[in-house]
């Protein structure tokens, strides 16, 4: 199904981000592509723009600067983007791909302006803050009609679906990784730096745990955000995480290797809750070119943004994720199932991230992240998020 609206890709000029951009341009020519990058004048940005233009003049593409390691930059970008949507300058947001992140976790770097660990802020707090700040710019779906009707608002996905005419909403796809397996939800709350100086080299195990913890917290916080949308019953936005597997690094962008530091390999080492045989034959055991996960991410984004009559199967999955080749008019944002993808294989998120099954822990993470990005005072939020366009 043709997808309309705006697709925002953070780090849209990186190895994976540029491949995602090109895949969107090939498959969805009616989308307006908005690439978020630190330097729109860089050679990598010029290269991806040139490759998109070669596909045809009909493609709509722009690059916008934003530094995702600074809250002020994220908020400025989000405010400007929402204002542009409201004025009709660009169409409502159909897809947000949170692709930006840092893997330079093997050196102790300084804190950000906001006072957080840089890896944690870029990999977890930034995508969360960006998503929440863009809420009023996302495309509205069928559940909006239920919020304006007389009588009580439906509280369950089933009731909402029955009360509304199916219509496309929007989705957020977060790029995760299997390195979150050794992650710890309390890692960044502990005194893990232990008074060491900036520039101190970290051991492989500690660096991996630092990176994995940032990605684990990102996924838990974002799935918690999705739950809050379902609880309020009128936010037509789906959220999922995609593990891209082991991506072949680009020699031009592999900054860790150039510095002589060990590179964090984002590879599928293990998945909690999945059988050893499945791990052995995992699709992500191989080293893939960026175009391989890019195709999977774009397919997932298109499927989750549309209410369609196509098959919802995305592979055998083995995780009971609800694919199974079902057909019917389906809106993912009205569905209670939380989905986690390993390339194009679908799993129930709790089977991969076991902590998602503990509602109290998930809520604690959600409240903590909300406080850290300045969205809450630590108490449960009772006011529904703003209406979407």
Automatic annotation (TrEMBL):
Keywords: NADP, Oxidoreductase. It comes from the Eukaryota. InterPro entries: NAD(P)-bd_dom_sf (IPR036291), SDR_fam (IPR002347). Residues 315-326 have a biased composition (Gly residues). GO terms for molecular function: oxidoreductase activity. Residues 306-326 are annotated as: Disordered. PANTHER family: GLYCOSYLTRANSFERASE FAMILY PROTEIN (AFU_ORTHOLOGUE AFUA_2G15915), RETINOL DEHYDROGENASE. Belongs to the short-chain dehydrogenases/reductases (SDR) family. This is Ketoreductase (KR) domain-containing protein. It comes from Polytolypa hystricis (strain UAMH7299).
């Amino acid at each position: 199904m043709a997808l309309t609206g705006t697709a925002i890709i953070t780090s849209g000029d990186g190895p994976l981000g540029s491949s995602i951009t090109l895949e969107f341009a090939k498959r969805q020519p009616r989308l307006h592509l908005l690439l978020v990058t630190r330097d729109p004048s860089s050679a990598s940005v010029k290269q991806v723009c040139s490759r998109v233009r070669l596909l045809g003049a009909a493609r709509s593409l722009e690059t916008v600067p934003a530094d995702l390691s600074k809250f002020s930059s994220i908020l400025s970008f989000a405010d400007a983007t929402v204002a542009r949507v409201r004025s009709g300058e660009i169409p409502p947001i159909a897809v947000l791909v949170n692709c930006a992140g840092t893997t330079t976790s093997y050196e102790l770097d300084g804190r950000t302006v906001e006072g957080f660990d840089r890896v944690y802020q870029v990999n977890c707090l930034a995508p969360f803050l960006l998503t929440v700040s863009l809420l009023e710019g996302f495309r509205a779906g069928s559940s909006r009609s239920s919020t304006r009707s007389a009588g009580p608002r439906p509280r369950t996905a089933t009731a909402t679906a029955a009360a509304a005419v199916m219509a496309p909403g929007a989705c957020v796809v977060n790029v995760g990784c299997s390195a979150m397996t050794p992650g710890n939800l309390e890692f960044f709350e502990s005194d893990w730096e232990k008074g060491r100086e900036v520039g101190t080299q970290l051991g492989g195990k500690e660096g991996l745990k630092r990176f994995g913890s940032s990605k684990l917290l990102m996924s838990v916080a974002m799935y918690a955000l999705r739950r809050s949308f379902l609880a309020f019953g009128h936010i037509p936005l789906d959220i999922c995480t995609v593990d891209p597997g082991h991506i072949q690094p680009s020699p031009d962008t592999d900054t860790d290797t150039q510095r002589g530091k060990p590179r964090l390999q984002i590879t599928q080492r293990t998945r909690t809750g999945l059988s050893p045989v499945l791990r052995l034959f995992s699709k992500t055991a191989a080293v893939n070119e960026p175009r391989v996960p890019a195709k999977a991410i774009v397919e997932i984004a298109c499927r989750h943004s549309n209410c369609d009559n196509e098959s919802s199967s995305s592979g055998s999955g083995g995780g009971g994720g609800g694919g199974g080749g079902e057909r019917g008019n389906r809106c993912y944002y009205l569905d209670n199932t939380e989905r986690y993808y390993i390339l194009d294989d679908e799993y129930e998120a709790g089977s991969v991230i076991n902590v998602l099954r503990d509602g109290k822990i998930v809520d604690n993470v959600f409240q903590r992240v909300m406080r850290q990005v300045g969205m809450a005072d630590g108490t449960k939020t009772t006011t529904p998020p703003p209406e979407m366009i």
